[in-house]
Amino acid sequence: MSDNQRAEIASGHQPSEIVIWNALELSRHIHDRAVSCHEVMAAYLDHIEACNPSVNAIISLRDRAALFGDADRCDDELGRGMSRGWLHGVPQAIKDLSATAGLKTTLGSPIFAEQVPEHDSIVASRMKRDGAIVIGKTNVPEFGLGSHTYNPVFGITRNPYDTRLSAGGSSGGAAAALAMRMLPVADGSDMMGSLRNPAAWNNVYGLRPSFGRVPFGVAPEVFGHQLATEGPMARTVGDLARLLATQAGPDPRVPLSNNQDPAIFASGLERDMKGIRIAWMGDWHGYLPMENSVLSLCEQALESFRTIGCDVEEALPAFDPSELWQCWLDLRHWGVAGLLAPLYEDPEKRKLLKPEARWEIEGGLRLSALDIHRANTTRSAWYAALGTLLQEYDAVALPSAQLFPFAAEECWPREIAGRRMDSYHRWMEVVIPGSLSGNPVISLPAGFNHTGLPMGIQLIGRHQADLEILQIAHAYEQAAPESTRRTPRFSGN
């Protein structure tokens, strides 16, 4: 633990050292029998009891007695020389968009407030397979729509660095729980920056893997919808890569899943960075409005890449970003409508949908098949244009968000730098280049502004180059200044 972290921790609630350990460190201590799974569970539950009320990140928390029973069984297995995997006995809360057998999965919607699935999602089942003990869920926006985690079922998730502000979303509960040390690693998902925006606003790492790397679902439709993916979040790149190794790998129920052996992510991330070239897109020549100091913080972060031997220079793809936005609108309308139209068609359930969900569905209902074909053609052209840039560069960098966390009671920001936002997600436009590419994209901590709010910087990698982007991120992590490792105060009840 750094001196900076110790100073922050000393100013508030005093957590057990167990919850300060990162995930690989915790796993090592468990397997060395230096600490029992029972002790780990007790430390995490006590810490959650003290800290969760201030941020509301973890929801649907299971009964303590049941959780201690699970932990004791893990200890018994270790005593007999048995380990399920690197997550053996490690507490985990699964994102509330991801199905968990026998545990509420509400999607943040009052329509599903009492829904209890019979089966786990692929990601949840793989984390359990590797030994994780599911203690509850992490909070999300309603149906994951919007990068601000609030819903009428569980309320608002607040930012650990300033609880008056948003934690981002849709993986806001996961990111806030990580920052507050209530989880050692966390699963998330990303359609429009949901692994990246909350990572940036909570000073953690979030990886949107290459499309197909982490099989999504199982969903009723497995061919058409290709915008969303699940992926890992962590406080270190090593933990991030190790969780990706758990989540990744093919599944025959998901025909577009990637066949590469996920074990590559469980090996070392060391690599010589000399000669690595990074293109800095910035605000796309002024197209993307940015709050004051977002760009300057990210440009400071670029110096860490130069420190490790990377060449960094400004460069843009040959593409009109306004065309990319229209493509995004159409494909997102179509995808959301496909998922939620049956709820919209029921007048009583329609009343329970938030306005942004109704807007997405109504937009989708106006689209023709030809509109979707045109949007996919635009997306294909973008992939080609980005690919051309990535023939010259190893990665493309841009901010993870266009503004710092906003007031938690606001639904979404109406303007950035004096420019009006014309939809509930226009303020997140900076994330769609990565989302539409299908390439791996990681958000790295970039530092803090003068009021102590965090920001992140995105790196978009080449097609299927998840390992390479993790290696670059790992080298960046080693070189980044101590100021990027600031820990939030752990306020008690």
TrEMBL record:
<protein>
    <submittedName>
        <fullName>Amidase</fullName>
    </submittedName>
</protein>
<dbReference type="InterPro" id="IPR000120">
    <property type="entry name" value="Amidase"/>
</dbReference>
<dbReference type="Pfam" id="PF01425">
    <property type="entry name" value="Amidase"/>
</dbReference>
<dbReference type="InterPro" id="IPR036928">
    <property type="entry name" value="AS_sf"/>
</dbReference>
<dbReference type="InterPro" id="IPR023631">
    <property type="entry name" value="Amidase_dom"/>
</dbReference>
<feature type="domain" description="Amidase">
    <location>
        <begin position="39"/>
        <end position="470"/>
    </location>
</feature>
